[in-house]
Write a structure and sequence with these properties.
By secondary structure, this protein is an alpha/beta fold. The chain is about 40% helix and about 20% strand. The strands form two sheets. A six-stranded mixed beta sheet has the order 3-2-1-4-5-11, with helices on both faces. The protein has a five-stranded mixed beta sheet with strand order 8-7-6-9-10. It is globular.
């Protein structure tokens, strides 16, 4: 029985997973945007206020008590360090007081593990696209225990580009969803935009220049909001899809996975589905409620670690970290 919490940015989340892996209860609270963005200090304080009541709520909903929980898990990073420390400290305290193991989980691995299942037939090798407000990366997975980085963004993440362009257009922050809806009524060829690092063979991304080009085009006043949104969305999704499926063909993947908040984008989901169907590949897309930050993905990553090593544990000295660097992504943080 796993109780997991997630506080890597401005979403407070908690979930309980049964011994069989069923989601018994889950809750997510998205904090209201502050000053057009996330203010780390305010986000941290709201996590402290929300998390105890939220955790009590998921325990009650699951029909469990703290005594029923065998493992506690929390996101250790990457993310906003202040926010991460709230969830880490909370989960560690519960584990310590209950004399149960604690697992610190890598946030990027957690996103990918929203798809975790014990039956891996026809799943691997896989190419995984992780695209969110803070991260954009491609991974090659030969199994749940072997995930290697192919390439990532050199500057802005895809989700950040969506949100900041939406904010520029007066759609609010975060505005990725609003931009997606607006784009449905526009012409994706109306605004000429560049494709930075656009070669499909290059597994790395860059969205800063595209974001600047969109701002300059918008400031001309020549384009409707609908056309601007549609053109920008088409360019970002085109870059994500072309690079993902080039790697899938190159590495002879059996499946393609997508994860992260941008995986909720309607055009991206459609294009991924079309490409996967044409290539004869299995496609794994997260349910919309599990694309953005949530605690179910943290719990599933912890479960995968325990399936691999029943004695897995993180020390209580496991600390929060802002950035992940390396070429091999592992779940457990020590």
């Amino acid at each position: 029985m796993i109780l997991a919490v997630e506080t890597s940015c401005d979403d407070s989340a908690a979930a309980v997973l049964s011994a069989e892996g069923a989601v018994l209860a889950q809750r997510v609270f998205t904090q209201p945007a502050q000053s057009g963005g996330v203010v780390p200090e305010i986000a941290s304080r709201l996590h402290m206020k929300i998390l105890p009541e939220m955790t009590a709520g998921v325990l009650a909903e699951s029909g469990c008590t703290l005594g029923d929980i065998t493992h506690f898990a929390a996101t250790a990073g990457p993310g906003l360090v202040g926010s991460l420390l709230v969830g880490l400290s909370f989960a560690k305290a519960l584990a310590f007081s209950s004399e149960r193991p604690f697992l610190g989980i890598n946030h990027l691995a957690a996103h990918l593990h929203i798809h975790y299942e014990r039956d891996t037939e026809d799943l691997f090798p896989a190419v995984a696209l992780l695209a969110s407000g803070g991260h954009t990366a491609l991974f090659h997975m030969t199994g749940w225990n072997d995930c290697r980085l192919l390439g990532c963004t050199r500057d802005d993440a895809a989700g950040e580009a969506f949100d900041k362009t939406a904010k520029l257009m007066g759609l609010g922050f975060p505005g990725g969803k609003a931009l997606d809806l607006l784009a449905e009524r526009g012409d994706p060829t109306a605004v000429e935009l560049p494709s930075p690092m656009g070669g499909a063979k290059n597994p790395e991304f860059s969205f800063s220049g595209l974001k600047t080009a969109a701002r300059l085009a918008w400031e001309t006043g020549l384009h409707s909001p609908e056309d601007m949104a549609a053109s920008f969305r088409a360019r970002v999704c085109g870059l994500l899809v072309s690079k993902t499926f080039h790697q899938a063909r190159k590495l002879r993947a059996s499946s393609v996975m997508a994860a992260g908040g941008v995986a909720a984008n309607s055009l991206l989901r459609l294009r991924l589905a079309d490409e996967a169907s044409a290539a004869g590949l299995r496609l794994l897309l997260p349910p919309l409620k599990h694309a953005t930050d949530n605690a179910v993905m943290v719990a599933r990553a912890a479960r995968a670690e325990l399936d691999s090593d029943p004695g897995a544990i993180s020390p209580l000295s496991c600390n929060a970290f802002a950035r992940w660097e390396g070429d091999r992504l592992v779940r457990l943080c020590r």
